[in-house]
Amino acid sequence: MTDTRRRVKVYTLNEDRQWDDRGTGHVSSGYVERLKGMSLLVRAESDGSLLLESKINPNTAYQKQQDTLIVWSEAENYDLALSFQEKAGCDEIWEKICQVQGKDPSVDITQDLVDESEEERFDDMSSPGLELPSCELSRLEEIAELVASSLPSPLRREKLALALENEGYIKKLLELFHVCEDLENIEGLHHLYEIIKGIFLLNRTALFEVMFSEECIMDVIGCLEYDPALSQPRKHREFLTKTAKFKEVIPISDPELKQKIHQTYRVQYIQDMVLPTPSVFEENMLSTLHSFIFFNKVEIVGMLQEDEKFLTDLFAQLTDEATDEEKRQELVNFLKEFCAFSQTLQPQNRDAFFKTLSNMGILPALEVILGMDDTQVRSAATDIFSYLVEYNPSMVREFVMQEAQQNDDDILLINLIIEHMICDTDPELGGAVQLMGLLRTLVDPENMLATANKTEKTEFLGFFYKHCMHVLTAPLLANTTEDKPSKDDFQTAQLLALVLELLTFCVEHHTYHIKNYIINKDILRRVLVLMASKHAFLALCALRFKRKIIGLKDEFYNRYIMKSFLFEPVVKAFLNNGSRYNLMNSAIIEMFEFIRVEDIKSLTAHVIENYWKALEDVDYVQTFKGLKLRFEQQRERQDNPKLDSMRSILRNHRYRRDARTLEDEEEMWFNTDEDDMEDGEAVVSPSDKTKNDDDIMDPISKFMERKKLKESEEKEVLLKTNLSGRQSPSFKLSLSSGTKTNLTSQPPATNLPGSPGSPGSPGSPGSPGSVPKSTSQTAAITTKGGLVGLVDYPDDDEDDDEDEDKEDTLPLSKKAKFESS
Questions:
Q1: In this predicted structure, what is the pLDDT of residue 37?
Q2: Does the first or last residue of the chain, that is N or C, have fewer Cβ atoms within 10 Å of its Cβ?
Q3: 231 and 260 Cβ atoms separated by less than 8 Å
Q4: 69: three-class secondary structure by DSSP
Q5: The pLDDT value given to residue 646
Q6: A GO term (biological process) for this protein (predicted)?
C-alpha cells in the first residue's frame, strides 16, 4: 500500500506506563468472521504481517487525541493507540468507529470510561449533563468546590470534562486569572490554582490541547504559581520567558516543528517543576499528560530526522574549522539533547535513528570534536559517543577499522578515546571511568557479530592489539621501569587501576591475542611492580591481574611466570604485609591455595623450590604445608614411576559400598574357598620377574612408616570383597616362576604373625585361609607355583584426605588375602 493517509504506528502501554512501539503499517476496517464483527486491521508495511486485529466493541471507549491519535483499552491493563501520519486518515477511521457504535463523529470520546454505581446511573438518568456555575469572580469558590467534588467519581469527572470542553470554560477561567492578578485578589488566585490543578487530574487530552495551546499555556502556568500552601507565589513565567532561552543553533524552517518544540519544553516543565508531586492516588490520573509528552518527543525526533537539510547543515558546521567555539559548543549540546530525546523511541526506531546519524557522518564529526581543547565540548561529545556505543557497538568498530586503513594510529577515534581517558584532569577520574566502560563494551566479544564470510571478533581484536593496545598500556609501562612505581600519587594510581581492570577483562575474554601481548611485552612483570605501591587498591589490582592469569591454568602462561620468577614480587608483598589480617593477606593466600587445590604441578614445584624457606614458618593456614606435601608426593612419583602406576590402578578400582554390604562381603570372604579366587587374578608380563624386590618394597615401606602413627590411632576395619564377578581392593600378580619366595617388610616383633600380641587372627599361622594382622602396615608378596599375592597399601595423603572428606566410614587399612599352597 502507498496510501499515506492510512499509515499508522501501533503502540501498547507497558507496565511502566510507557508506550511501546509495535510497528508501522496501514490500517483498514472490515468485517472479520472469526471475531463476528467489524474490526480494525493493521498490516505491517515491511512484510504485510498482521500487527493488529481488534474488534470494534460497541461498549469500548475510544478516544481521539491531538487529531492524529486514537486510544482505547481492550482489557483492564491493556491499552492500545494508533498514531496516524495524517489527520485525514485518523478522521476516516474515527468515523468508522463512531458508525459501529452509533455515535456522532464530532465527539472525542465514544463511551463513558467508568463502572459507575447504581446510584450514579440513576443520577445520570435524572441529570443528563453537569451544569457549571457562570464564570464570575464571585463564584470562583463554588467552581473550585465543584471540581474538587467531581474528582472522586469517574462519572462526574466525565461530565465535568465534557462541560468544560463544550462551553469553552477554560479560556473564560484564564480571563478571570488576569482580572485577579490585576486586582491582586490572592483568594481568587488560590481558587484558580485549585481549579486548574483539578482540570489536570481530569486526564483529558481535549482539555490539554486547549490548555497547552500557544495562547493559553503561559496563563495556565501563571495560575499554578499561586499555591495556597506557599507564602509567596513562584515565578515560573519569569523563568520561562527571561531565563530559559530558545536557541536555534541551526535555523528551523518548519513552523509546526518549532511550535512543537516550544510546547513540549513547557509541558515537560509543568510536569517536572510546576505541578506538585502526585500522591499515590493521583499518579495514574496524569497518564495522559505522560502520553502527550511522549508522542510529542517522538514526533519531534521524526520531523528532525526527516529534514536532511537541517542535519546536513548541523554536521557541516560541527566539523567546519571556521565555526567559533561558542557556536560549536551550542551545536554539540543540541546534538547531545537530540540523542537524549531518541531514548523515547522504541529499539527498532532507535536503531534507524542512529543509522541516519551515521549516514550523516556523526563518527567523523565526533573525531574532530574530541580532538579539540574545549573540555565542555569534549564532555558532550563523549556523552554522544556513549549513546552510539551503547546501541550499536558494531557500527563504531566498523568505522574505526575502516579509518585505520587511511590514517595514522595517533588520530584514530578509539585512540583519541584512550588518550582522553589517560589525560583526564578530574581528580576523581569521572570521565576516565566512563570512557573505560565504553572501551570495555567495544572489546567485549559477547556483543560481536559473526557472519558467513567474516568474524568481527577476529578482525577487530587483531586491529585493536595492533593499533591501540600500545596506547592503552603506555602509562603502565612508563611507570614501572624500576623495582617500584616511579609515580605513586593517588590520581596516577587510580588511572593505572582502570588500565589494569581493562587488561584483566581482556585476559578473561580474549584468548591468544592478550596471551601473545603479555608474553612478548613482558606485561605481567611490569604489572607486578605495582605490588610495591603504597596504595593497597592498586597492589590488589595487580594481584587480581596475576590471579586471573593463573586461573586459566595455561602452561604457556605458567612457563612464562616460572622463567621470569614472577612469584617473587607476590611473596615479597606477602612478607612485607607481616601478620596483618587484611585483604592483601587473604588474596595472596587464596592464590596459593588455588594452585594447591587445582594441583598445578609446575607452579607447585616452582614455588616450593624457590620460596619454601620464606614461607615454611607460615602455620596459621595449612596452604603452604599442603603445597610442600603436594611437591613431595610429586617427587616420589617421579622417583618411583612403578609405585605411581600401581597407586593409580588401585585408585581406579576403588568404589563405595554401604555398611550392610560391607558386613555381608566380609562374612563371605572368610567363608570362601581360596581355590575359587584364582580366576580373578591379574597377569604380569615375564619381564617383571627381573625387577629387584627391594625396588618394590622400599617405597612401600616409606609410606607405611609415614602413615604408621596416624593410622595406629584409628580403628582398623577389615575390607573384604566377594571376588565372584567383582573388583577386590587387594592387588594380585601372577608370575611364571616356579620358585617360592617370601618377601615381607618386617613388622614390630610383638606383632609377628602367630605371636600372642597379634590381634584377632582368624586362624593359626600356616593354616588354610589364615591371615596375619597387625597394627602396623604389612606388605607381603608370596610366590608359589607362579602365583603372587601383593598386599594392598594405603594411598598417599592426598587420597586419604579426599576419601575422609567424602565418606567417614571408609576403612583406612585393608586386609589382604594370601594365596598359599
A1: 82
A2: C
A3: no
A4: strand
A5: 58
A6: positive regulation of gluconeogenesis
What is the number of other CB atoms lying within 10 angstroms of the CB of residue 274?
Answer: 20
Condensed to tens digits (0 to 9), the pLDDT of residues 312-359 reads: 888 888 888 888 888 888 888 888 988 888 877 777 788 888 888 888
Spatial separation of the C-alpha atoms in residues 23 and 224, rounded to whole Å: 38
d(C-alpha 499, C-alpha 432), whole Å: 10
- Tell me how far the alpha carbon of residue 737 is from its chain's centroid: 69
What is the grid cell recorded at 418?
A: 584512550
- Helices 623-639 & 797-806, crossing angle to 10 degrees? 120
Answer for the pair 630, 596: CB distance below 8 angstroms, yes or no: yes
Cα dist from 401 to 183, 397, 408, 415, whole Å: 70, 6, 12, 12
Determine the straight-line distance between the first and last CA of the chain, rounded to whole angstroms. 102
Burial of residue 632 (number of CB atoms within 10 Å: 0-12, 13-18, 19+): middle
Is-contact 787 734, C-beta < 8 A? yes
Exposed e or buried b for every residue in 275-299, given b needs 16+ CB within 10 A? beeeeeebeebbebbebbbbbbbbb
Of 718, 706, 730, nearest in space to 650 by CA: 730
Cβ-based neighbour number of residue 348 at 10 Å:
12
Residues 405-438 pLDDT 10s: 777 767 788 988 999 899 888 888 888 999 999 9
Gap between the Cα atoms of 707 and 703, Å rounded: 6
Are residues 792 and 650 in contact, defined by beta-carbon separation less than 8 angstroms? yes
SS3 6: helix
Q: State the Cα–Cα distance between residues 730 and 674, nearest whole angstrom.
A: 14
Dihedral over alpha carbons 455, 458, 463, 469 (to 10 degrees) = 140
pLDDT band of residue 203 (cuts 50, 70, 90) is confident
Compute the half-sphere exposure of residue 335: CA atoms within 13 Å on the CB side of its CA: 37
Please count the residues of the chain. 821
Task: Determine which of 8-22, 148-162, 654-668, 676-690 has the lowest per-residue pLDDT on average.
Answer: 676-690
Output the pLDDT for position 112: 56
Are 117 and 93 spatial neighbours (Cβ–Cβ below 8 Å)?
A: no
Q: What is the average pLDDT value for the chain, to the nearest integer?
A: 76
pLDDT of residue 302: 84
At 608, which amino acid appears? Answer: I
Report which secondary-structure segment, H or E, holds 29: strand 19-32
pLDDT band, very low/low/confident/very high, at 285 (cuts 50, 70, 90): low
Alpha-carbon span 461 to 443, nearest angstrom: 7
Distant-in-sequence contacts of 348-354, Cβ < 8 A, 24+ apart = 348/21, 348/23, 349/21, 349/298, 350/391, 351/391, 351/392, 353/301, 353/305, 354/387, 354/388, 354/391, 354/392, 354/395
**DSSP code at position 276:** P
Neighbours of 750 (CB within 10 A): 12
Answer whether 193's CB lies under 8 Å from 228's CB: yes
Phi, psi of 65 (to 5 degrees): -125, 140
Task: Report whether 491 contacts 429 (CB < 8 A).
Answer: yes
Partners of residue 95 on adjacent β-strands: none
pLDDT of residue 668: 55
- Residue 578: which region, alpha, beta or left (left: phi > 0; alpha: psi -120 to 50)? left
**Looking only at Cα atoms, what is the longest distance across the chain?**
133
User: Which among 190, 279, 178, 278 is positioned nearest to 232, based on CA atoms?
Assistant: 190
CA 235 – CA 225 distance, rounded (Å): 7
> Which of 45, 47, 43, 3 has its CA nearest to residue 27?
43
Q: What is the DSSP string of 232-271?
A: S---HHHIIIIIS----SS----HHHHHHHHHHHHHHHII
pLDDT in tens, 669-678: 445 444 444 4
